[in-house]
Design a protein that fits this description.
15% strand; alpha/beta; 6-stranded parallel β-sheet; 30% helix; 10 strands; 247 residues; two-stranded antiparallel sheet; single chain
Length: 247
């Protein structure tokens, strides 16, 4: 007998919508990309509709002015600020925030994602991206992008560091023993002492484990290397294909 299956739904929240010029439509409120109430309303609507998650994209650049004829600069909130606000305004909705392993250090990614997880009581996810925009490179002191495969090599190491930091506190690490003056149990918080090709991180992380074990990992690569990376690391695969065969 076949088992019942469920569709899981997530809102991919692009600031201006999938159509870059949608902001020009008369029914779109002016300045809405920079208005928390618009995102909060969308989150409440999809939470009431039983969606699983609110997905927040990011590109680490405003874009270039030669493209603004087709669509404006981003002019929206960065993912973790917006994610924290939405976590406080929702009860069950997952909050997926994007962070780039190419331009954001794994220690900072670890603390941002885990902080969002605690703020949301175990509802956070990390959309792992290696970044591709030429505009982004110029914002981080580089003249050209790293080769595609090297960006994935960096991502492989970065995700390992992030997960080590998430697990650097034992599941029952917090003792909160007032009489003994012990906040954590002896030996329950451990340095990770990672010394790799791209990163050296002593650790441990700054705060306790997620109530869900670890935040959810999301990945969107569509190249052969990206697909393999997603198969190895992702719990949710995000992809957009233009034909049934490719899908």
């Amino acid at each position: 007998m076949s088992q019942d299956r469920q569709i899981h739904l997530s809102l991919f929240a692009l600031p201006h919508g999938q159509l870059a010029s949608a902001w020009r439509l008369p029914e779109i409120p002016a300045h809405s990309t920079n208005d928390l109430s618009q995102y909060a309303e969308a989150a409440r609507i999809i939470e009431d509709a039983k969606f699983d998650a609110f997905f927040i994209a990011d590109k680490l650049s405003a874009g270039s002015d030669e493209n603004w004829h087709y669509g404006p600069p981003v002019d929206a909130f960065e993912p973790f600020s917006l994610g924290g606000a939405l976590a406080a305004l929702t009860d069950k909705l997952g909050i997926i925030a994007t962070a780039s392993t190419t331009f954001q250090h794994p220690y900072l990614i670890s603390r941002s994602v885990l902080a969002l997880d605690h703020l949301s009581k175990g509802r956070s996810g990390w959309n792992i991206v290696t970044s591709y925009s030429p505009d982004t490179v110029k914002n981080f002191g580089q003249s050209e992008h790293l080769p595609h495969d090297e960006r994935y090599e960096i991502a492989e190491e970065a995700i390992g560091v992030v997960r080590e930091l998430w697990r650097s506190w034992g599941e029952d690490a917090v003792a909160w023993d007032r009489e003994a003056g012990s906040y954590t149990r002896p030996g329950s918080v451990q340095a990770i002492d990672h010394d790799g090709h791209y990163f050296t991180v002593a650790g441990p992380g700054e705060f306790r484990r997620s109530v869900q074990g670890e935040p959810v990992r999301v990945q969107a690569g569509s190249s052969a290397r990206g697909v393999a990376f997603a198969a190895k690391h992702a719990e949710i695969v995000f992809t957009a294909q233009t034909t049934l065969e490719e899908g």
